[in-house]
Design goal:
homodimer, alpha/beta, two-stranded parallel sheet, about 10% strand, globular
Chain lengths: ~350, ~350
């Protein structure tokens, strides 16, 4: 027998391109167009390399306590990881451990089925309706867990909290994970439901609204039991996931709430301006509460427009998948970037 | 049914204590007593927080190419992760995917059985002999994979490469992982065997000899097929594991080879001095090729000595486990720290 027979082979997730050149307009991975809070630069300047010889705090207290204070939770209700992908992957492994399928929308973050395949978790995709909205009654089937992003990606569609509460409340036998990577751009977090439902796990990230994709920080919030299970699984995988820089700089980012509110408001304003331009140009899109818009045009091919934009040095995201192959997901950049994009679209349309 | 029934419950690994106070002599988690290379400080000063808004390079090219150059390998033979624990956990998930048990020594890194339990991998512990050495013929039983540290932890015992080659060569149907966290303190890496055996994976870390425990950087080396499988599994878990600071500072640490050789030589010298002191005091220990020594004393209780040291602010490691409960693992610190420890032992003995 060859060792290859024992290998767990997987089809990896395909992330958006991360080109090394800087002379492009990068609207393909929903990064923040503005730098992190000024406090992050200050915290960076205060780091001493000499401290790096020692392990970081395995409990991540500096960062966890900042987040706990910010959200008004005890530390025991907050868990941090290496980006929300790390938190979500661990949550899949920990909570989706049933023979019944887990449920998620057919159009959603394309890492969900990759994690399910990796950990051999059966899954069932629940179709969104024609407006890319969840049909809450479809989540009443037997399941081993439920996950969905809210706002959804790549559509940007936000589901009202009564939809979330319906799904969480009717599935008390399953953990329901609400992936709120884009919650700070207009939606309302389901965190307020966490005290009522002990099966609800909220996952958020520093990669979008906190402008820290490069630092890899994500977090989960929920009742103490959920967080304890997640923490046990972390301590059974890697005791020290967050390095010293992530702990310090992450905490600094949370502390500067004014800056956070200003940049998210700026992005929401730019999105509103861009929506009007899209309307004028005849694009169609679901109302977005994310830092991106999911657009299509009745007379244009999604794939062709994607290629034309790439050639012009404007990177957006396109998926060659059923139902969404005519759509492009466009990150909201700076006003200047969005004007350049709009000028190109003007000429192209 | 309650959601708790779907939870994967685990008994986590217990890491050495990470006390927040600094007024102790910390010889309990095998950190380097010297700071990282001067180039790391320089690289830290050159970081700009503004760059952190963008995702890091998912392929970790800056760091991987430095390591590849250093070891004379193509980049396709190097994989990096968030500490060697991250790399090892992923390797367990990827390569130990058989119904046959994996094999590892009975006295070894105590994370191995935790990962096996987490991923539901059957395992069998192979007893070390009376001198804490591996009995290579015991590794000829049917297995789904083999892992051992070399030098071993917590014993410090290094197995000659012919033992490693015997085990790797006779088990061509399994992946054999040699965990070389402590290889730079006197042992010889099995990397030279990697071109001959495609089932050999070498794992190393920046946490010990490179004085970067706080940055969480580990790596694996092996043939391209092994590295590709590992990389696929990473891209099925978390596309961006290494943050921007780890990529830059890790690369800087590898580039300063002079400093690396000087600090490892210093630790080896201190170990030699400490061995003589241990001899004088009547302690017994296997010859160590790590940055720690595993000591016992014919007339002293390991648990009592551990407590006495803790009370005096000297932290070492003790396990309440069969065969090793009378031993303490003592990290090699600075000369000054080892003199303080020796003075205490002098009085205690």
């Amino acid at each position: 027998m060859a060792w290859q027979e024992n290998v767990r082979t997987v089809t990896p997730y395909t992330a958006g391109e991360q080109p090394k050149r800087r002379d492009i307009i990068k609207l393909n991975t929903n990064e923040c167009p503005y730098p992190p809070a000024p406090g992050v630069s200050k915290a960076l300047a205060e780091l001493s390399a000499d401290d790096f010889r020692l392990y970081p705090d395995p409990d991540c207290t500096a960062l966890v306590s900042c987040l706990a204070d910010y959200y008004g939770l005890p530390c025991e209700q907050v868990f941090v990881g290496v980006g929300s992908d790390d938190v979500l992957a661990l949550a899949f492994l920990t909570f989706f451990n049933s023979k019944k399928p887990i449920l998620f929308p057919d159009i959603t973050y394309s890492f969900y089925d990759v994690w399910a395949e990796l950990y051999r978790i059966p899954y069932q995709k629940i179709p969104l309706d024609g407006n890319f909205q969840m049909v809450k009654e479809d989540y009443l089937v037997k399941n081993g867990g439920i996950i969905f992003p809210n706002p959804n990606a790549p559509t940007g569609v936000f589901e009202d909290l009564d939809v979330v509460e319906f799904i969480v409340g009717k599935n008390s036998g399953s953990v329901v994970i609400v992936d709120e990577a884009y919650i700070d751009f207009g939606g309302t977090s389901a965190l307020s439901l966490a005290s009522k439902y002990d099966n609800l796990l909220i996952v958020q990230t520093f990669s979008k609204s906190r402008a820290m994709a490069g630092m890899r920080i994500g977090y989960a919030m929920g009742n103490q039991k959920l967080i304890k299970y997640l923490s046990d699984a972390k301590f059974a995988t890697n005791s020290y996931t967050m390095n010293r820089t992530a702990l310090s700089l992450g905490a600094a980012a949370v502390l500067d709430d004014d800056y956070f509110k200003k940049t998210t408001a700026k992005i929401i304003n730019t999105r509103a301006w861009f929506e009007k331009e899209l309307d004028r140009l005849g694009f169609i899109y679901p109302k977005s509460d994310g830092n991106f818009i999911f657009v299509t045009h009745p007379r244009l091919s999604g794939a062709e427009l994607f290629t034309a934009l790439s050639e012009r040095g404007i990177y957006v995201r396109h998926w060659n998948k059923p139902r969404i192959c005519e759509y492009l997901r466009i990150t909201i950049g700076t006003d200047e970037e969005m004007r350049a994009l709009t000028a190109f679209l003007d000429a192209y349309v």
